[in-house]
Structure to design on (103 residues):
């Protein structure tokens, strides 16, 4: 089995997902989500992803010098869906190299 090159929709059960050429959004790993955001995996999810970045500000720090503490990626719901039923992932900031969230 080769590494996937694409992330498919949540409920996908296509042959590519079965043989490992792609992976469904429902079973994607944290590293694969980071690879998707970094552009290393093709995005065929047909979904919007929300990205929340959390910072911790100490009294002796200024915002421009901060690095993110936590990154949460959430599949955004359609009108007839509940957010609680959709996948989300907590990423380490180092996984998103080169993206603006890293300062």
């Amino acid at each position: 089995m080769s590494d996937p090159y694409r992330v498919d929709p949540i409920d996908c059960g296509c042959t590519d997902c079965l043989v490992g050429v792609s992976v469904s959004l429902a079973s994607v790993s944290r590293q694969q989500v980071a690879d998707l955001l970094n552009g290393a995996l093709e995005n065929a999810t047909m979904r919007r992803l929300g990205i929340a970045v959390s910072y911790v500000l100490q009294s002796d720090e200024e915002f421009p010098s901060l690095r993110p503490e936590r990154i949460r990626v959430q599949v955004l719901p359609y009108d007839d869906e509940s957010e609680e039923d959709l996948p989300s992932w907590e990423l380490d900031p180092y996984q998103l190299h080169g993206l603006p969230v890293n300062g």
